[in-house]
Amino acid sequence: MSRTSAKVTDASVKYDEFRESRAKPRNYITKLIFEMDHSLVQLKATDLTISKLEEMAVFIYESMSISTRNYHSVQHVFGIIGHDVRLKDNSIAILAACFHDCIYYHLDGGLTPRMAALLKGSFEITDPDIEQHDDSDYINAQHIYKFSATDRETGIDDKHLQMVETIFGYTSGQTLRFAGDGLNEFLSALVAVRMLKDHLPMEILAQIACCIEATIPFINADKETGKTHMDKLHDNMKKLKEAYNLELSDEDLVKSVQVACLLSNSDVENFGSTDRLWFLDCSWNLLTEQNVSLRNEHVYSVDHFLAALYGTFGFYGFLQPAIVFHKFQGVPAASEMETLMQECKNNLAFGRTYVGAKVVAMSLISALAILTGGDAPISLFTGDLRMTERRSDVMTCPPSPLSSRTYEETCNDSQHPPNECLESCTYSVYEILAEGRRSESSFDTKRSPWAALLYGYLGDEGLNCILKEHTLYPMTPEKAWILLRALPPKPVNIIVESIYKQAPSRADRISEIISQL
Length: 517
Known about the structure:
Elements: E1 9-10, E2 13-14, H1 15-20, H2 28-42, H3 50-64, H4 74-83, H5 91-99, H6 105-108, H7 113-118, E3 123-125, E4 145-147, H8 159-167, H9 183-196, H10 202-213, H11 229-244, H12 250-267, H13 276-290, H14 302-318, H15 334-371, H16 379-382, H17 407-411, H18 419-422, H19 427-435, H20 449-469, H21 477-486, H22 489-502, H23 507-516
Antiparallel strand pairs: 1-2, 3-4
Helix pairs in contact: 2-3, 2-5, 4-5, 5-10, 8-9, 8-10, 9-10, 10-12, 11-12, 14-15, 15-19, 15-20, 15-21, 19-20, 22-23
């Protein structure tokens, strides 16, 4: 395939002059422009303008910078691009990385008019009471969408849409679910193809979509055939080549899937890291994306947080390293895969112990809440996460002594489990619980002293026993009493007495509980 770059001007500024005058980017939009520009020039893109580069960069930036994004933000794009040196100069992988999370339908709460216009043909609006308009600007995020693959029997001729459907293995007319079918990746790939279709040939577009498809996370091997995610992706690429008569050799197809493997592995790089603190930080960034209630840091309840922790704990137990990282025909090498798999196993075990300790601590708080009047905002029991300034027409209140640290963080600094108890713990887990994660989060303190206290007394064996033998979520009065009596008395008394001081509105009922323990 031989293509030549067109000499194009945008307004009165020559495109070549723009490229030659580039300085170090000072914002994410410009950085996206430069990354895409470099990649597209390397791929000999045609009819490229500065305006089009900015249009694509702004779309990606706006899509990934809304308030619901915490982990899958625009910074994530550059984390992927910079992770693997083998992808540093791979233009197809870089373009795929730029677009791969631009649509996150369930997280973002719908489609913007611009998204809907780019995704035309992949969905229908099913709102029964909303009048349909031809103007795409009428479409908004509140509509109810039904996503499905095109019905080939209707004679629809949209080669770019159907090309992406083929790569994703969709059948004619298939309804696409929000979970399990790779919907977000499919929509992101379709956006990439449609934004780039005037500048790149089908062969390159197909390889970009192939890379984005590979980022669908945690797909099991086919139970009947034993084929892995990457095996099936390679099969789909072969079908595409035949259906569209693409000028891609068998070697091109293999290399496409191998590059897709590397990009996919970079997308989940924290699972294979030796840096446990970074792995935990990434997990905490995902919690607000997966749990809407935690986005309102001031009013989420004990039950909300326990549900989020319990889900993460279960996920760490369910997930297997074999479906986290991918390989295809020798890429990555066996030794690299072995290291990734082992570190993934280590991270999952570490994370499960850390989160398990927080689950037990939060279950204790939930038990007290259930027994003293029911669920309530977590700040009632642990103190405010972050004191906010409140305006008053009368006076301005002095800063609270809790403004820099929550009550949970201040009340137990002098309490530590005996050294003989700590010997039964994984000390690195205890240390992070007691001293804190690396990064701040909007909904949780870095330090978890109550979880550290309980874990220090329980040890690994005791913690696993509680988590295995007790159903901690959802909490009920019966489960609450069983849990309170199963936990070590000393840390329970310390925590209960702290909550007694923090929640005077429930002090009488907490006193009754203390008397019965």
